[in-house]
């Protein structure tokens, strides 16, 4: 009796030692240095404030600030059928499934089983003669998370799911902004095409007049050649705009999930409103940037996985239990006398693994450093993008005012040149120069206006989907 008691104590000694270690040893965590952010935007009078991430907040229908029903319909179609959004949603579902697996690892595992074994040997009921042993019962196992390995793995999976959710938001915002920018570019092309074709019509009229005057002997053939050259060059520009519009229309088809062969957007007037940017945009809106939140979650997940790698140095302790019936006769299997049960505790502690665990820690630490650098880079990129668009809008507004003055002056110069040409005071070359200058200035004014729309959409995207303060 005394010998059996000593033997039991000897067998339980490793388990007791592991339980004692659990109270005084944990896998230490390693934290990344916080990202330093500027106090305010250089291009605005907004002050930075520390706020909780708000990437999960609904951005609302931010594209409706442009008051364009056609744009509204296209963005809604893209939200339902864009393949990039569908891929991001699939990755989020995978991350949530992985989270479910890690959560299941922390719960007791219960199973049912039955079997039949034909065996022979000294330990069988019939001695050395073959015998059949049938079993039926239930098993239960539960790993004691004494050192936080499963908890950290669950934390990492949770953060991965949060990162994927943020990336889904980022993809949706990216697609919405690309739809808006492509649509606005296409509408700008429509206006520019109309302007160039109007110029083509004017040159065609000038050519007819010039040819009649040449036939009458009033002007030389050189004047006819000059008008023909201007007409051909302007027609070439019109065809180039047609090609560019076709490319934009095809790109828009892909964004809304349609085939380019069946998608068409009828040319129309550019009635899209240009929203006014409120003064003093608060820097807190960057808390809604889903890509920044995704990078942050990725960094925290890498930090949790470093803890998982360090927990590999500590023993694994599992509790097991089994109960059921075992009998050499199938008819006696479920008799009370055939009952069998077992309870145990399993402890495993690798002693030598050739540096495998240390390599795992080194790999996890390197991933944490990379994720930290990626997070910092994402924050810096967010500020750069906001500053870029704020400065673009400010300078484009000044450029639009200057270009408007240039268009007014060029239009007046064309009117005066036509009058002087009819009265024989200006040459045809001077009239063509005046018309060319007016066309160039009108197109530049149109491009500045298109740039204002593009910068506005880019600013909304850079701010995470609008400029309202997160609640």
UniProtKB/TrEMBL annotation:
Entry-linked InterPro entries: MdtP/NodT-like (IPR010131), OMP_efflux (IPR003423)
SUPFAM superfamilies, A to Z: Outer membrane efflux proteins (OEP)
Location(s), subcellular: Cell membrane
Keyword Lipid metabolism among UniProt keywords: no
GO molecular function: efflux transmembrane transporter activity
Signal peptide: 1-32
Chain coiled-coil ranges: 224-251, 429-456
Gene Ontology CC: one annotated term: plasma membrane
Name of the protein: Efflux transporter outer membrane subunit
Membrane topology: Lipid-anchor
Pfam families (UniProt xref): OEP
NCBIfam families: outer_NodT (TIGR01845)
Keyword check for Membrane: yes
Family: Belongs to the outer membrane factor (OMF) (TC 1.B.17) family.
Keyword annotations of the record: Coiled coil, Lipoprotein, Membrane, Palmitate, Signal, Transmembrane, Transmembrane beta strand
């Amino acid at each position: 009796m005394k010998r059996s008691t000593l033997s039991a104590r000897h067998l339980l000694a490793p388990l007791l030692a592991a339980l004692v270690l659990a109270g005084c040893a944990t896998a230490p965590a390693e934290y990344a240095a916080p990202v330093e952010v500027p106090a305010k935007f250089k291009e605005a009078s907004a002050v930075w404030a520390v706020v909780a991430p708000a990437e999960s907040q609904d951005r609302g229908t931010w594209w409706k600030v442009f008051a364009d029903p056609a744009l509204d319909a296209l963005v809604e179609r893209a939200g339902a059928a864009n393949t990039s959004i569908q891929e991001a949603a699939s990755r989020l579902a995978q991350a949530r499934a992985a989270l479910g697996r890690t959560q299941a690892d922390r719960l007791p595992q219960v199973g049912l089983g039955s079997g039949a074994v034909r065996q022979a040997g000294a330990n069988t009921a019939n001695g050395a003669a073959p015998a059949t042993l049938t079993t039926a019962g239930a098993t239960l196992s539960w790993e004691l998370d004494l050192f936080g390995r499963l908890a950290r793995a669950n934390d990492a999976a949770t953060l991965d799911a949060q990162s994927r959710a943020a990336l889904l938001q980022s993809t949706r915002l990216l697609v919405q902004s690309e739809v808006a920018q492509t649509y606005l570019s296409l509408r700008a092309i429509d206006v520019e095409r109309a302007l160039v074709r109007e110029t083509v019509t004017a040159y065609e009229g000038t050519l007819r007049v010039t040819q009649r005057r040449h036939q009458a002997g009033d002007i030389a053939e050189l004047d006819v050649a000059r008008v023909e050259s201007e007409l051909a060059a302007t027609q070439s520009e019109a065809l180039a705009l047609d090609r560019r519009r076709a490319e934009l229309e095809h790109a828009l088809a892909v964004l809304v999930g349609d085939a380019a062969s069946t998608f068409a957007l009828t040319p129309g007037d550019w009635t899209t409103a240009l929203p006014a940017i409120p003064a003093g945009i608060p820097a807190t809106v960057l808390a809604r940037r889903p890509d920044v939140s995704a990078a942050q979650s990725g960094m925290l997940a890498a930090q949790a996985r470093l803890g998982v790698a360090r927990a590999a140095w500590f023993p694994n302790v599992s509790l097991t239990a089994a109960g059921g019936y075992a009998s050499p006769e199938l008819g006696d299997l479920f008799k009370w006398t055939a009952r069998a049960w077992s309870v145990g505790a399993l402890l495993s502690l690798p002693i030598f693994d050739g540096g495998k665990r240390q390599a795992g820690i080194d790999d996890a630490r390197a991933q944490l450093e990379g994720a930290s650098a990626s997070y910092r880079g994402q924050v810096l990129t967010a500020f750069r993008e906001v500053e870029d668009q704020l400065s673009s809008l400010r300078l484009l507004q000044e450029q639009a005012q200057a270009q408007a003055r240039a268009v007014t002056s060029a239009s007046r110069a064309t009117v005066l040149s036509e009058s002087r040409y009819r009265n024989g005071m200006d040459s045809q070359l001077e009239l063509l120069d005046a018309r060319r200058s007016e066309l160039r200035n009108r197109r530049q004014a149109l491009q500045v206006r298109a740039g204002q729309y593009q910068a506005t959409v880019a600013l909304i995207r850079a701010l995470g989907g609008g400029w309202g303060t997160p609640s």
